[in-house]
Model the fold of this input.
Amino acid sequence: MSVSEEEIKRDLFNKGLQAFNKHMFYDAHEYWEDLWSDYKIKDPKFVQALIQLSVGYFHISNLNINGARGLLNKCIPKFELYKPIYKKLDINFVLGAISQSLDNLEEINDIKNFNWELVPLLDIDYDR
Done:
């Protein structure tokens, strides 16, 4: 039984989503990057924003504050293209979480003290 390309794309997207929500940011980035680079998708900028978001948080876990700031700032204009709601995801909520995360990085003296509760839980419906 062969799997359709659409099923593969949905699977990669959802695996990335599950990994992100478990704070497995490197894995999330890998799934989404495979989707973004290997398949024609109708919303490449949205998936690219998700990749950059996950890499931004991965950099925090890796104690790379400059990388974190850079990637979190890079994904903002891409998410803004999809405001206010995209695939059931409240983009303004995500942008607010990014802003709070960037503020937290400015406020803390040590990146090890990042407030992981600021990472948004992503609830996205791939088929919408």
In short: The CA atoms of residues 2 and 8 lie 10 Å apart. The first helix runs from residue 5 to 21. The longest strand covers residues 85-86. The mean pLDDT is 96.
